[in-house]
């Protein structure tokens, strides 16, 4: 009996998939990266399935690549040759939702927006909202410490994670963290797993913090600026004034043109950048103040929603950004994050880089966090980004690091950014991280070659 | 030349202290624990002093016990025989304070409240505010992941820590984290150091997140309740209503009596618990709503401040809690944290435990977080808590764990709680934590015997 047949016999019928056409569909995420060939895929339905798979993988020294919905943008769930692709997408139970304690205990396959909707039935919300929230899973969000639009106010996935249930490489089950709002017993193993991209173990449940949802839908404003720098100045002024936007997004000229070419929104040719912001409604809200600060910073036009429908229309512009770019060609979506004060300079640096390397870059930024997504657009006929795109990306990464920033704000390192990683963290951090990896996964079977 | 003479020669004059009367003063924190005898104390003034000390300690296999102001309540900075007590209290520079990026880079000896005051000169604040904020250091706060009164709104020390500079046991200098609001390059080493109680390395600088200070001083309210359960119900109602208190503190009957015996505040004998809450002033503030919710939950009396002076007077009651107890005897200050919904039951459990073991327990709680500080009062003549106090503490710990809680919300494990640690975390977490320790400190010289 070969190893895969043995695994299939250990798991419920239909759990192990071996048809190459089928396993190929499990082998990649949303990047262009060409995956290796998996041995098989496992559709886990329970923690026991995960335990069985990992015990077997340890026994047979088979690499394990965990995956959720495959919406990753850094190659974290790309197959390596001879691996088992372990899908957690079928573990979709919300095991518990406690309004009194404002926590939920969920399995990793729960879709982010589904948890948010379940919470809202109790007047609560799940705050982290990556742009992929309708399609990405909590497990994937945990693996990359996903951010999102609202994280300017509520923080990233780590800030909403209280505890985890993890299956280690050898099949042992570990509980980390707690159900309480704070605690400091031993090292922060929860924080270690969040953002570890499947390299330390497989998360099979998470205790997450929910928050009270605002009583009324937020007020949205959109402001058009004659330069990215003016928009950056408005962001700085909004933060300095103590406003607390729920989201604060910036779109550059190229992004706006891509949207206009597609949807004909009537964009004024002089508009070089747009800010979209949301504030809580009501007397403590900041919409009017933010609008005034945008005008003071030189906005040529500011619209503030007066109804939920108008709010939806304005935020809808932001949602068009990514699909509009995909119409232009294949996309390398990057994810640098800089100190907020460096945002205008970083936008300028990206524009200069684009010109220098004759590359099309459209940038959207979670401006309140200094987190920019420069999207490098290239010929759809190419299997991967051409050399000028890589050269431009390299320049953007280095500019972000020079500005005191980071390679990745919320997408993770995956495979894509590994070659730049130690530019940021230095060799000593790399050595320590490899040491930690060794403690949790001495055989090196957990998502090898990723993240660290 | 013996080892200590050699160290003294390597460091600036006056840095190494060997007079036993002097080193004894460095050998303990605020617990009753009897320390070992240090070899010497080092008053570090710079990162270089720390590097030199740790290189020397590695060479000579000398245990190193880092300390800040010695305000710890779990024995984390208690000397072991033959150790060097490494004081960071003299590293007091605020290296940078950037209003634009809302960050500060500080050395570990900076007093918490001094950083807050420096931030307020720019309209900012440093949010974590342990009760010891006027005397404890940022380094100590980081070592224990300190919480405080405001953490119900702003989170604990980890939530304000973006990056660290750490000297490892062998003297190598590690930079962790970043200056940006988010990032996910490699494992979260920053989170690993926060709360590690000096067992992984010595923090020599921290990049901390500041926040905009509210424009107006908060409104304070005090509410008296006929039972702890009614106060607990009010806490639940306040949270469920979506109020966002800046602090939400509960004092039990014994605490109130201790304050009244001392300061004669005219306490009504029927009052069994008091809530002290603060809300932001202004239209978005919640003081009036919280007052109404307290009345609905059965408060016999509610006072809401109308001036900053009245606010100070009400919050002053809370500040009296700890000194009032110290008048009663020696104190074992505990620190359990439970899910918020378990708060009333936990208060009842503590009262029953006190009766069963004929022990005086006064409880103050950061009620909004479910974090209780039962203070076990015992005869000042005793060197350490008598058996009935330990038996009662054991029961309280187990009750907290049974309620889904934790042994320590914000004080750390130190020496005091080590024997209960694996009751909470289990043996597997213990094994992994020892593995992590081994990666950072293979010789085991960093604060041996503490935290894990």
UniProtKB/TrEMBL annotation, chains A, B:
Cofactor names: FAD
Top-rank taxon: Bacteria
This protein's record includes keyword Ion transport: no
UniProt keyword Heme, yes or no: no
Family annotation (InterPro entries): FAD-bd_oxidored_4_C (IPR004113), FAD-bd_PCMH (IPR016166), FAD-bd_PCMH-like_sf (IPR036318), FAD-bd_PCMH_sub2 (IPR016169), FAD-linked_Oxase-like_C (IPR016164), FAD-linked_OxidoTrans_Type4 (IPR051914), Oxid_FAD_bind_N (IPR006094), Vanillyl_alc_oxidase_C-sub2 (IPR016171)
MF (Gene Ontology): FAD binding; oxidoreductase activity
Domain FAD-binding PCMH-type: 34-213
Keywords: FAD, Flavoprotein, Oxidoreductase
Family (UniProt): Belongs to the FAD-binding oxidoreductase/transferase type 4 family.
Name of protein: FAD-linked oxidase
Organism of origin: Sphaerisporangium rufum
């Amino acid at each position: 009996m070969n190893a895969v047949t043995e695994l299939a016999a250990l798991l419920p019928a239909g759990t192990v998939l071996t048809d190459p056409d089928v396993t190929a569909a499990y082998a990649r995420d949303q990047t262009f990266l060409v995956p290796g060939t998996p041995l098989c895929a496992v559709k886990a339905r329970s923690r026991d399935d995960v335990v069985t798979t990992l015990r077997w993988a340890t026994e047979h020294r088979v690499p394990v690549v965990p995956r959720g919905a495959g919406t990753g943008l850094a190659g974290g769930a790309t197959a390596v040759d001879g691996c088992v692709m372990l899908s957690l997408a079928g573990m979709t139970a919300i095991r518990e939702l406690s309004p009194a304690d404002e926590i939920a205990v969920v399995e990793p396959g729960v879709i982010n927006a589904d948890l948010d909707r379940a919470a809202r039935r109790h007047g609560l919300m799940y705050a982290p909202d990556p742009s992929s929230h309708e399609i990405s899973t909590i497990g994937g969000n945990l693996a990359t410490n996903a951010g999102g639009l609202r994280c300017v106010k509520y923080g990233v996935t780590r800030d909403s994670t209280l505890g985890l249930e993890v299956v280690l490489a050898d099949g042992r089950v570990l509980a980390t963290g707690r159900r309480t709002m704070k605690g400091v017993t031993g090292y922060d193993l929860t924080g270690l797993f969040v953002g570890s991209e499947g390299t330390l173990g497989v998360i099979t449940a998470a205790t997450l913090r929910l928050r009270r949802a605002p009583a009324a839908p937020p007020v949205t404003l959109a402001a058009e600026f004659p330069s990215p720098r003016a928009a950056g100045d408005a962001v700085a002024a909004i933060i300095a004034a103590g406003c607390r936007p729920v989201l604060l997004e910036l779109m550059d000229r190229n992004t706006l043109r891509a949207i206009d070419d597609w949807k004909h929104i009537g964009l004024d040719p002089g508009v070089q950048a747009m800010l979209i912001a949301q504030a809580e409604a009501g007397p403590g809200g900041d919409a009017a103040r933010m609008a005034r600060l945008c005008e003071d910073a030189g906005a040529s036009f500011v619209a503030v929603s007066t109804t939920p429908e108008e709010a939806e229309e304005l935020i809808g512009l932001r949602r068009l950004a990514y699909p509009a770019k995909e119409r232009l060609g294949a996309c390398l979506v990057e994810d640098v994050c800089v100190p907020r004060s460096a945002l205008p300079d970083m936008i300028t640096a990206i524009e200069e880089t684009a010109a220098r390397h004759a590359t099309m870059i459209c940038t959207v930024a979670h401006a309140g966090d200094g987190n920019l997504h420069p999207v490098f657009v290239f010929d759809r006929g190419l299997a991967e980004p051409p050399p000028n795109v890589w050269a431009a990306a390299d320049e953007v990464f280095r500019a972000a690091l020079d500005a005191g920033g980071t390679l990745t704000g919320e997408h993770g390192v995956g495979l894509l950014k590994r070659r730049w990683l130690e530019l940021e963290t230095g060799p000593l951090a790399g050595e320590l991280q490899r040491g930690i990896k060794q403690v949790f996964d001495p055989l090196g079977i957990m998502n090898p070659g990723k993240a660290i």
